[in-house]
Amino acid sequence: MADSTVTQSINRSTVAAALAAARTEAAQYRAWINAINRAALNLEACPWQFDGEILVIKSATSAARYTVDALGCGCKAHQGGRPCWHRAARRLLIKAAELATQPAPAPINVQCLSMAELQAAADELFN
Where would a tag sit more exposed on the chain, N or C end, judged by fewer CB atoms within 10 A? Predict the structure, then answer.
C-alpha cells in the first residue's frame, strides 16, 4: 500500500546501501548497471516524488515527467524493452525504504576478527 511518509525514511545512507546491493545483483548485466548508475546520479539531480509504490520523476534531459510503477515506465527505453534509469531509481528507493526499517547492525571491533570473520561480516552487511 502506498505510504506518503515512506520518503521520510529514505536517506543517503539507505540509498547508498541499496545502490551497493543493486550493483552486486546486476553485476552481470551491463545495461542494468548503466541504468542503476544513472539512476543514482539522477535521484540527486532530478525532482522526484515516491509514495512507496509509484515514483514520479522529472526527465534528466527534457521537461517530461515519468510515472513509474510495478508495471513499468512510459519512457522510450522501457517501451523498447531496454532497462531504463527510471525503473532502476524506483527499485533503489524501494530497497532503501526496506533497509530503513531494518535495525542498524551492531558495531564490530574489526581488530579482533580473523580474515574469514571479516569477510563473513562484510557479506552480512552487503548481501
Answer: N
- Model confidence over 3-19: pLDDT tens digits? 545 666 788 889 999 99
Residue ranges per structural domain of the chain:
6-126
Q: Give the three cell numbers for residue 70.
A: 510495478
The answer to whether 3 touches 51, Cβ cutoff 8 Å, is: yes
Q: Which residue stretches of 10-68 are H helix?
A: 12-25, 30-45
DSSP class per residue in 62-127: SS-EEEEBTTB--SHHHHTTS--HHHHHHHHHHHHHHHHTSPPPPP--GGG--HHHHHHHHHHHH-
Summarised one tens digit per residue, pLDDT across range 115-125 is 777 777 777 76
Each residue's pLDDT tens digit, 26-83: 999 999 999 999 999 999 999 999 999 999 999 999 999 999 999 999 999 999 999 9
C-alpha distances (whole Å) from 120 to each of 20, 95, 108, 115 are: 17, 22, 12, 9
